[in-house]
Amino acid sequence: MTERIEGHGGELALAALRAYGVREMFTLSGGHVFPLYDAAHKTGFPLYDVRHEQSAVFAAEAVAKLQRRPGLAVLTAGPGVTNGISGLTSAYFNASPVLVLGGRAPQFRWGSGSLQEMDHLPLVAPVTKHAETVFSPDDIPRAVTAALTAALTPHRGPVFLDFPLEAVFSVSDAELPALPGIAPVEPDTDEVAKAAGLVAAASRPVIIAGSDVYAGDAVDALRAAAESLQVPVFTNGMGRGALPPEHPLAFAKARRVALRGADVVVVIGTPLDFRLSFGDFGDAQVVHIVDAPSQRAAHVQPAAAPAGDLRLILTALADHPGDRADHADWIAELRTAEDAAKARDAEEMAAETDPIRPARVYGELRKVLARDAITIGDGGDFVSYAGRYLEPAQPGTWLDPGPYGCLGTGMGYAMGARVSHPDRQICVLMGDGAAGFSLMDVESLARQKLPVVIVVGNNGIWGLEKHPMRAMYGYDVAADLQPELRYDHVVSALGGAGETVAKAGDLGPALRRAFDAGVPYLVNVLTDPADAYPRSSNLA
Questions:
Q1: How far apart are alpha carbons 439 and 177 in whole angstroms?
Q2: Phi first, then psi: what are they for 284, rounded to 5°?
Q3: DSSP characters over 415-482
Q4: Contact, 178 vs 1, CB < 8 A?
């Protein structure tokens, strides 16, 4: 059943957005989108503003990731939209259902040189599922509904709409469409049965579960499948925490041993990309389970590749009626390797070195982070250690840039996480290089009373570039930063607080002060520049 609503373009858009469960707007002020602000202001719709448009899109993406619903960013015309394209692209790679609404110069004088006049669609179309200019206010509810439906239909992803000035400022009487149901993608039952048979018969199977397991609300189904078939589970991205660390089938440290010894590798809800050796696991057969046929790998020929609703596929694996091989010896072998790696890590995380090693930072963090803390990685070298040493205890608590690897997510993700979970710890792990991309948005967090903790690993270099360049060429360029820079002073000047830590023994007290502060608080840790570029990690 449909209803008719009257209002200007901003009011029409907001009515359609509310129907889809959108509950907040992230933006940077711009006159082209004033009607959207007016609609939000008059109805008490929360509006959060930032200092760079990329942070608005990243904040919307954090909401989309954490809450598994659409996130909204509103950007003014021209440079407002182009400043948000890296955020859109990250959302595209991460399959995050983000809607970006853009302003647009007036259509009635198009081509005359209006302020910020440009056609955004050719730029955003390659990194969105749907991109459209809406020329009439009457059409705004229909366009918003269609865009959000596309964003939420697997394989999920970002969408874009822009409104010429006359469309969004005009008043109209328009129809608000009924919400179309999004039916689950039904998998091919024969392909699912084939996958289940391969896993059940394998001697040394391994599961690697990724972000789409969380995004598709398939965590419980994953656990049921793993327990039913008795298969060890490794995770990446937002799949981390799908099995808590204490679960007998949860593994994190023994991945290299597992992939070298496995005869069947089951990759669920994540692409066969550079993070997973492009799907090359030696002699092991590969089962690739994805949420839509479009996500099947074109560069690998899996032994089975079920595509569809992950809950349906994983439930079918759990209910496999055939015989199952005994995997007890294989699980025990991996547990031995896991325990040995954990013992080595424990030594590294307790290291009393001067300067501080990154491992010690994470050793101290593990003592203060709650099980439901949201941990955000924004960096390269320093954050790669987080993937190795931190083990999320619950699903939906880990945010990183994902396979696109875009730095600058930190403050936007922090804003979206704080809005999503007002009562949880929010901890941003940031390299000193990444700090240059978004740290100014601490002002946005402080002004809007959104406290978070920021831990900067400050080694004064671009760690992932300096050491490899030296190894390749015998020298490095463009890889140095100002040593021992006081990022904590920057945060204090912007309305937060912080301190610099140079001794390992001071880390614990500093972190406890940070989580008790009630304002954005930056712990600036001077880390060893020689202890960089780890050869392996479980990041992503």
A1: 41
A2: -70, 145
A3: HHHHHH-TTS-EEEEEEHHHHHHHGGGHHHHHHTT---EEEEEE-SB-HHHHHHHHHHHS---S-B--
A4: yes
The C-alpha atoms of residue 366 and residue 187 are separated, in whole angstroms, by: 40
Q: How many CB atoms lie within 10 A of CB 333?
A: 16
> Tokens 């072998």 label which residue?
333
Structural contact between residues 525 and 361, judged by C-beta atoms closer than 8 angstroms: yes
Q: What is the pLDDT of residue 1?
A: 58
Residue 162 β-bridge partners = 102, 133
Nearest to 186 by CA among 293, 105, 282: 293
Give the chain's length.
540
The identity of residue 474, as a single letter, is: G
**Phi, psi torsion values for 513, nearest 5 degrees:** -65, -40
Q: Which amino acid is at 488?
A: D
d(CA 357, CA 353): 7
> What region, left, alpha or beta, does residue 137 occupy, with left being phi > 0 and alpha being psi -120 to 50 degrees?
alpha
Tell me the backbone φ, ψ of residue 156, rounded to 5 degrees.
-65, 170
**Closest by CA position to 412, among listed 378, 372, 462:** 378
Q: Is there a contact between 411 and 438 (Cβ–Cβ < 8 Å)? A: yes
Percentage of the chain exceeding pLDDT 70: 98
CA angle 158, 164, 166 (to 5 degrees): 145
CA distance 346 to 360: 9
Cβ neighbors of 539 (< 8 A, separation 6 or more) are: 236, 275, 377, 383, 384, 386, 387, 388, 400
Which tokens is 126 given? 């390659």
Output Rg (C-alpha) for the chain, integer angstroms. Answer: 24
Q: Tell me the per-residue pLDDT of 87-131, one tens digit each, with 9 for 90 and over.
A: 999 999 999 999 999 999 999 999 999 999 999 999 999 999 999
Closest to 382 measured CA to CA, from 426, 434, 417? 434
Kindly report whether the peptide bond that precedes residue 155 is cis, defined as omega within 30 degrees of 0. Answer: yes
What is the token pair recorded at 429? 């792990």
313: closest CA among 213, 230, 386?
213
**510 neighbors 501 (Cβ within 8 angstroms):** yes
Within 8 A by CB and 6+ apart from 55, the residues are: 26, 408, 411, 412, 415, 438, 441, 444
Q: What is the pTM of this model?
A: 0.96
Tokens of 448: 């809007």
Which helix (H) or strand (E) element contains residue 287?
strand 285-289
Helices 310-318 & 219-229, crossing angle to 10 degrees?
A: 20
532 confidence band (pLDDT: 50, 70, 90): low
Tokens at 408, concatenated:
């600058």
Q: Burial of 298 by CB count in 10 Å (0-12 exposed, 13-18 middle, 19+ buried)?
A: exposed
**pLDDT, tens digit (0-9, with 9 covering 90-100), for 225-267:** 999 999 999 999 999 999 999 999 999 999 999 999 999 999 9
What φ, ψ does residue 187 adopt, rounded to 5°? -80, 160
